[in-house]
Automatic annotation (TrEMBL):
Protein's organism: Adhaeribacter radiodurans
Residue ranges occupied by any M23ase beta-sheet core domain in the UniProt entry: 145-243
Pfam family, one: Peptidase_M23
The protein, known as: M23 family metallopeptidase
SUPFAM superfamilies per record: Duplicated hybrid motif
């Protein structure tokens, strides 16, 4: 059986954001005493780890350890204040900042039970995916590397394996050729989970994604139509869950191992016949979406609202 390869999240679709992109912006205001209050504005839909560095800091003291490193939630946040040490002397500073998706000290739930991202009752075949850089460039795989390909039929609906907030959507890949084994520009949905992990659903049909960035979705909710008709392997979904390693988040991108910034979750899926397990290559599984798993993590109000929406009595 020909093995599948998967471009790693950390290599092609994970990157530092610079201030020019304006997803997270750091600002400051000066008061009458010559002190400077720094704030951030996160215009994204997930937490970002923010680092603020000072290359010059004269006659000023921060009320937070520098460099400043902290995760910022969507919206505005107060960061720190620079206070003049000698009010009679001039003060100067120069700073830069950078940010990356994730949380400081993430508490990722490794034991979470994910739904198969296909319709309940459907049988699918899975294939574990190789880490591209290990196979072709002999680079070590990221921590706990795990990505899965799920073989599907043309026109099949893709379902959310876990609830969360959509942070990125690409639905205009328009692949022009055929016979692909790999296409880095293919369509995808990225969903941010409550524990600061991210799920990537990749290989989706152009203009057939049902969700948009900023939208909260429930587990088991339809999110798009599978793509892959132009691949050698036919229609399939590529899926992985990853999170940022805080201690490696701001290593030098040009010199450090790209793999060091991310870690992966060895996802355990719920299957109808065998219950909770990690999917393996060349195996077939039946999908099932039990209400208890769809509603895991919800409070009573959320369960009631979900039940009313789908007309199921809790």
């Amino acid at each position: 059986m020909k093995s599948l390869t998967f471009i790693a999240c950390c290599f092609f679709f994970y990157h530092f954001h610079c201030s020019a992109q304006k997803l997270v912006e750091v600002k400051y205001e000066a008061d009458a005493k010559g002190n400077y209050k720094f704030t951030s504005d996160n215009r994204g839909y997930c937490n970002y780890i923010l680092e603020v560095n000072f290359s010059n800091l004269q006659n000023l003291r921060a009320n937070f350890r520098l460099p400043f490193v902290q995760d910022v939630q969507p919206g505005a946040k107060s960061l720190f204040t620079l206070t003049k040490m000698d009010p009679a002397s001039p003060a100067t500073f120069r700073y830069t900042y950078r940010y990356v998706k994730g949380c400081v000290n993430p508490k990722v739930n490794m034991d979470y039970t994910y739904l198969l991202p296909v319709a309940p009752g459907k049988e699918v075949q899975s294939q574990e995916m190789d880490y591209f850089l290990k196979r072709y460039m002999n680079e070590p795989a990221p921590q706990d590397w795990y990505a899965i390909s799920i073989k599907m039929q043309a026109g099949d609906t893709v379902y959310a394996a876990r609830s969360g907030t959509v942070v990125e959507v690409k639905d205009d890949a328009n692949l022009e050729k055929t016979g692909y084994t790999l296409a880095t520009a293919d369509n995808y949905i990225e969903i941010y989970h409550q524990d600061c992990s991210f799920a990537r659903y990749q290989v989706l049909k152009d203009q057939n994604i049902f969700v948009k960035a900023g939208q909260f979705i429930e587990a088991g909710q339809p999110i798009g139509i599978v793509g892959g008709e132009k691949y050698v392997s036919g229609p399939h979904l590529r899926f992985c869950v990853y999170y940022t390693l805080e201690k490696e988040a701001f290593t030098d991108y040009d010199k450090a191992d790209r793999k060091s910034r991310l870690a992966y979750v060895p996802v355990q899926f719920w299957t109808k016949d065998t219950g909770k397990l990690k999917l393996t290559s060349n195996s077939k599984y039946f999908s099932e979406h039990p209400i208890a798993l769809v509603t895991q993590g919800m409070n009573r109000r959320q369960i009631k609202r979900w039940s009313e929406k789908i007309k199921v009595k809790p």
